[in-house]
């Protein structure tokens, strides 16, 4: 992404998202007409697609901020690859292939049979997806929790939003593996609360989530260590690309599972969440090119707090149902509060600069 494009208008950033929205909603309307044969049915599917898009945006805005934080350090070549290949993986991989793969594994059927099941028996398909919620929540919750804690347990972090808490975490970041120990303790607590097979499933899936995070971190470290031996196109990119793809997958778990509360039709879900994913991509580009994270110093903190809240919610969802609206509003509220704090800080800085210039201080 070229920094010369930083003066692009809001419409310029959202152009392709708007085009995808129009095409997606039209496809939703056509699908609704084909499946119901009535105008009311068509409008219902149209509305569900729109709601799913809003759900995906609300759940994934913190994802866009984290993506922007990682993208700003990537080479332009890998930035472009993430924003092209990455969005294809995000839309088709996580919103279509991933739900199909769950059914293939859970039901022990082939991919073609899973597609037929999604089209012909959506209720059964939805039941299988809901039954797979526990291991998905354990895996995704663990990965996201490690992402959030690693950000705060960093002894080099010198900008703090919630000062007392973040200074405390930064101080103890020098203890190797402190965040891993915290997550493992939480895994043991939740696995002991659950009973029987559910306990074993949660424990196993959570450990896999932890191992996946550590493996991605290890791979990124190895790639960073061998930068000088790598081609210019690959420097500072492949490890971050893999990290962002796994991160996007973890963010997508909650939205994909939650979508089945609105509809059991896989294709409607793919359209709605796909529209939302395009807006997340547009927001990511805008955050990088406008250097928003630099101008609003606490915005990144709000995103990582939202990630931690989401990870805890995913854990708690293994015990109780929590509406997706609460998940989305919780994350959006934290990000909004961090934005307000950033604006307030900027105003105070400007006032201080004026006072210094006038000699009052």
From TrEMBL:
Q: Which InterPro entries match?
A: DUF475
Q: Which domain of life is it from?
A: Bacteria
UniProt KW Transmembrane helix keyword: yes
Keyword annotations for this protein, in alphabetical order, are: Membrane, Transmembrane, Transmembrane helix
The keyword Magnesium belongs to this UniProt entry's keyword annotation: no
Fetch the Pfam families from UniProt: DUF475 (PF04332)
Segments traversing the membrane: 12-33, 39-61, 82-112, 132-153, 173-194, 200-223, 235-253, 259-281, 302-320, 326-343
Task: Check the record and name the NCBIfam families matching this protein.
Answer: PRK14013.2-2 (NF010616), PRK14013.2-6 (NF010620)
* Name of the protein this chain belongs to: DUF475 domain-containing protein
Q: Which organism is it from?
A: Pseudorhizobium banfieldiae
């Amino acid at each position: 992404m070229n920094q010369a494009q930083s003066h692009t208008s809001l419409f310029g950033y959202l152009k392709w998202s708007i085009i995808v929205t129009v095409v997606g909603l039209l496809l939703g309307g056509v699908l609704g007409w084909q499946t119901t044969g009535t105008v009311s049915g068509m409008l219902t599917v149209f509305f569900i697609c729109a709601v799913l898009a809003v759900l995906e945006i609300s759940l994934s805005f913190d994802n866009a901020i984290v993506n922007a934080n990682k993208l700003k350090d990537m080479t332009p070549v890998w930035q472009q690859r993430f924003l092209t290949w990455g969005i294809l993986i995000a839309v088709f991989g996580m919103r279509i292939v991933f739900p199909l793969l769950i059914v293939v594994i859970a039901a022990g059927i082939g991919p073609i049979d899973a597609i037929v099941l999604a089209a012909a028996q959506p209720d059964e398909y939805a039941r299988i997806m809901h039954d797979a919620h526990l291991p998905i929540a354990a895996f995704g919750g663990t990965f996201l929790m490690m992402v959030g804690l690693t950000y705060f347990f960093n002894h080099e972090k010198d900008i703090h939003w919630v000062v007392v808490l973040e200074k405390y975490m930064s101080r103890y970041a020098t203890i190797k593996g402190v965040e891993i120990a915290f997550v493992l303790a939480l895994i043991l607590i939740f696995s002991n609360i659950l009973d029987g097979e559910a306990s074993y499933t949660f424990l196993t899936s959570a450990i896999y989530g932890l191992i996946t995070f550590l493996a991605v971190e290890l791979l990124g470290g190895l790639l960073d260590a061998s930068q000088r031996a790598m081609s210019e196109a690959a420097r500072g990119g492949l490890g971050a690309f893999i990290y962002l793809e796994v991160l996007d997958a973890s963010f997508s778990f909650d939205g994909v599972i939650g979508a089945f509360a609105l509809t059991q039709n896989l294709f409607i879900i793919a359209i709605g969440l796909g529209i939302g994913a395009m807006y997340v991509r547009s927001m990511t580009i805008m955050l990088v090119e406008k250097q928003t994270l630099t101008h609003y110093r606490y915005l990144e903190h709000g995103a990582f707090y939202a990630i931690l809240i989401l990870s805890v919610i995913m854990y708690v969802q293994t015990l109780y149902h929590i509406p997706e609206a609460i998940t989305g509003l919780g994350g959006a509220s934290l990000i909004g509060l961090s934005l307000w704090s950033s604006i307030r800080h900027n105003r105070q800085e400007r006032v201080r600069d004026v006072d210094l210039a006038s000699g009052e201080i």
